[in-house]
Write a structure and sequence with these properties.
mainly alpha; 9 helices; single chain; about 0% strand
């Protein structure tokens, strides 16, 4: 009986949180189009989330390109298909590996940062002070951050893809003496518009999920400083889970359109 009660309680809490996040998302879409627009804060958040994530995304992408090529090259050599390496790596990175790995890295860096920052403002009553002074804290704190990460993540994905492909080229150049021009000619011959468009579209949804979850957890933070750490931690866990769900839906829908 105790186990059933616990399961029932957890299910109820889960559906309550789903409803609250849905309402939070609805409020974001309402507030983001209302005047006045917080342009200065939005640009500052774009810098914080985009420019300061370049190094981390670049290093991650470079290592992915190196490792993927080093691990795959021996198998392709056994079948005499090493010439297909640029095509295989480019399609793998652009379609799937680049977007999801970049999104996970950003969920850890950006999602936790948003949750901790807004959580600290909530427990120190800065958000309450903004409400009392007549400022709309939701528009200033939430709308700008969600919009910034939604727009910045696709750019970070493109940057990470480019660095990953460059890392793959370095391995091919050292192992097989392949020129830069030949390698990237094969890359662009293999890629189609149908590979790039779905990956770019789902990157926007990845950014929206990271921003919404991070802001929701931080904006509704409770229980003092302990709640700040919990908000940052749960923001990363929940946003990472949502990324995989969104990715599955995106791949499923894309597969349907390819069949058509």
């Amino acid at each position: 009986m105790i186990g059933l009660r616990q399961i029932k309680s957890q299910l109820i809490n889960f559906f309550i949180e789903v409803g609250e996040i849905s309402y939070f998302t609805k409020r974001f879409f309402i507030e983001v189009f209302k005047r006045p627009f917080e342009t200065k804060e939005f640009l500052r958040q774009c810098y914080q989330m985009g420019n300061r994530s370049l190094l981390l995304v670049g290093i991650t992408g470079f290592i992915i390109g190196l490792v993927l090529t080093l691990q795959t090259r021996p198998t392709l050599m056994e079948f005499g298909a090493v010439s297909w390496m640029p095509s295989m790596v480019s399609i793998s990175i652009v379609r799937e590996i680049g977007p999801i790995i970049t999104a996970l890295v950003c969920a850890g860096r950006i999602g936790s940062g948003i949750g901790a920052e807004l959580g600290s403002m909530r427990v120190t009553e800065q958000i309450d002070a903004m409400e009392v002074s007549g400022t709309n804290p939701f528009k200033y704190l939430v709308a700008t951050r969600v919009l910034a990460v939604t727009l910045m993540l696709p750019l970070l994905v493109l940057f990470g893809d480019a660095i990953a492909l460059f890392g793959s080229y370095l391995v091919e150049n050292l192992k097989g003496n392949v020129s830069f021009l030949l390698y990237f000619n094969k890359v662009f011959d293999a890629l189609e518009f149908g590979d790039i468009l779905p990956a770019t579209i789902k990157s926007f949804f990845f950014g929206l999920a990271i921003g919404i979850v991070g802001c929701y957890k931080g904006y509704n933070c409770k229980k003092g400083t302990e709640g700040v750490g919990k908000a940052a931690n749960t923001a990363v866990v929940l946003s990472s889970l949502l990324l995989f769900i969104i990715d599955f839906i995106a791949v499923f829908v894309t597969d349907i359109f390819y069949d058509l």
